[in-house]
Amino acid sequence: MAGGGFAVDTPAGSFDGRVTLSVVITCFVAASSGLIFGYDIGVSGGVTTMVPFLEKFFPDILRKAAGTKVNLYCVYDSQVLTLFTSSLYLAGLMSSLVASRVTAALGRRITMMIGGATFLVGGAFNGGAENIAMLILGRILLGFGVGFTNQAAPLYLSEIAPPKWRGAFNAGFQFFLSIGVVVAGCINYGTAKHTWGWRVSLGIAIVPAAVITIGSFLITDTPNSLVQRGKIEQARKALRQVRGSETDVEPELKELIRWSEIAKSVEKEPFMMIFERQYRPHLVMAFLIPSFQQLTGINIVAFYSPNLFQSVGFGHDAALLSAIILGVVNLTSILFSTTIVDRFGRRFCFISGGLVMLFCQIALAALLAAVTGVHGTKDISRGSAVMVLVLMCVYSAGFGWSWGPLAFLVPSEIFPLKIRTTGQSINIAMGFLTISVLSQSFLSMLCHFKFAVFLFYGGWIAIMTLFIFFFLPETKRIPLESMYTIWGKHWFWHRYVTNEESRQYDNNI
């Protein structure tokens, strides 16, 4: 099929597994890694609208806002302010590349623990910041923490979850990320009127960091990681724990050992191997899926939604409350995605969500052009501001059942074991690279492009939706170690993959 929309049969002898209380608790703890990323996304935009924070660190913005003829799109155009946001993502980019080797050498669990502890220290620095340098240093430490957890947690969830329910369990990471956004918005709303409010908002980041640090200490590592590091007995124990004591785990363990031996038999460096022709589809997905996720514009909206809503006519409190509403809508749509992602598939969620977001971006651009004028100098009515919020909410919902959870899920499930941590590292690094560029440039783009900035993101959403339709095969219910089958049957990617993995699989079953 031209669109690549086919179903690949689950290979015979696959180990479906059942949902046990242990696997639910374990995945719940691992998914809570999303809290720290979500909290930072939610808290940053709100804090940058607090007058005491701006007075201390960014007084130029207040002077600009007091101007009588300021363009409503340009109030928050400050490169220093955007550096406050983007510094975290540049640090996350660097740490995610290092995290690949840490994850392979020490395991997924230890990597999450390191990320949580680093984020905790960064939160303490930000809460106690006395100058820009201290603030940026704290942001860099937060970025290191997020880089480690974003690398390890999606891998952990994909490896530990039963294949039949892998999509729902992996969506837990995005679910907790959204909880972090909503909680941060609520805290911003409650602290905004106090001179010390920004310190509380930034400092409370140590709480979700402590949750993941302590939680990682209490759970087992994934059987895949334990086998890869030669800890067979621990892997057996971990399998029994997550699959249930009455389940015969030996066949699944034997399968993991065989694939680990195949991976170890290849002496090439993973960062070199992933560039081989047979891994071209994996590499393309690792580069494009995280980049496309950021080019939907969702995290930019989350960072700057209080600024944006304040610019288009909401008061300060109303702008913070609107950002909370946006987060709650996104959270609800992620819950909806858990009910459909393993039933209707990844492609359906990607494409339907993309179409919804595309409509909303075009509608937002048209509405803002009509009510603010081409140059953004006309006042926007209360009714029009509410309509902006409604369209933002629909857009956020579309993202929540598509690119939100699936941009973490799909890359974490498509790589063979020998390049899995490397592929995930590239995936996370590309996400951080894209978001750092966008976050550094968004406020300037908003100032210069005005309403057309939404058409910019709408154009990218159209491109990525077409890419999914033509180039992403369906991955639902395929065991991780059998994922190679989807590429050989795809209309385009079959010309790149070889039969090497198929022969290895057949010879070792």
Order of helices and strands: HHHHHHHHHHHHHHHHHHHHHHHH
CATH fold assignment:
Growth Hormone, Chain: A
- Overall shape: it is globular
Low-confidence parts lasting 5 or more residues at pLDDT below 50? 1-13, 501-509
Question: Helix tally?
Answer: 24
* Major sheet: none
- CATH architectural designation: Up-down Bundle
What portion of residues belong to β-strands?
under 5%
CATH C-level: Mainly Alpha
Strand pairing plus helix content: what structural class? Answer: mainly alpha
Q: Which superfamily, in CATH terms, is the homologous superfamily? A: MFS general substrate transporter like domains
Measured as a percent range, the helix fraction is over 70%
Could you tell me the number of beta strands? 0
State the domain count: 1
Question: Span between N and C termini?
Answer: 30 Å
Query: From the structure provided, what is the oligomeric state, counting identical versus distinct chains?
Result: single chain
**What Rg is obtained from the alpha carbons, in whole angstroms?**
23 Å
- Average pLDDT, rounded to a whole number, is 83
Textual characterization of the structure:
With 509 residues, the protein is mainly α. It has a single domain (21-219, 267-499), classed as Up-down Bundle (Growth Hormone, Chain: A), CATH 1.20.1250.20. 73% of the residues lie in helices and 0% in strands. The protein contains 24 helices and no strands. The chain has helices at 21-31, 34-47, 51-57, 59-65, 79-106, 108-127, 132-160, 166-191, 197-203, 206-218, 223-228, 232-243, 250-265, 270-273, 280-295, 298-311, 316-340, 346-372, 382-400, 403-414, 420-449, 453-471, 485-488, 500-507. The protein is globular, with a radius of gyration of 23 Å.
